[in-house]
Amino acid sequence: MRTLILTFAALAAPAAAQVTPGQWKITAAVTEAEMPGVPAMVMGMIKKPRTITQCVTPEQAKQGPQEMMKRDKSCRFTRYSMTGGKLDAEMVCTQPGGGTLTAVSRGTYTADSFQSVADMVGTGAHPMKMTVATSGKLAGECK
């Protein structure tokens, strides 16, 4: 789940010219999920909101989220627009064992906060549909 949060935080993080370096507090909540064969107890755990903190260095802020995501060779943006405080992005990731995970994210951002909703569809051995609401805010200096 942590990887999922970081992936969609990167989708929603403010663009390089607007991001403020520092310690960010990011919360992600699965608001809808369809995962055939997953036990109800596990689904309950998946739907619990998760909060992480992440340090964004000045160097990372200059790179922006698209550059940071290029480190993950299994994912690529097919659409990415951040203008006027609005985000519209689509990312496709290759799943281990075949299939893809496609995430369409839309949201709003400022230099020190963001909110987004990502709709995800997974194909292959473990098909799924999921909606994740993510928000983040600058919490101060990196620790």
TrEMBL record:
Pfam families, alphabetized: DUF3617 (PF12276)
Keyword annotations from UniProtKB, A to Z: Signal
Record has Signal as a keyword: yes
Domain of life: Bacteria
Cleaved signal peptide residues: 1-17
InterPro entries tied to this protein: DUF3617
Name of protein: DUF3617 family protein
Organism: Sphingomonas jatrophae
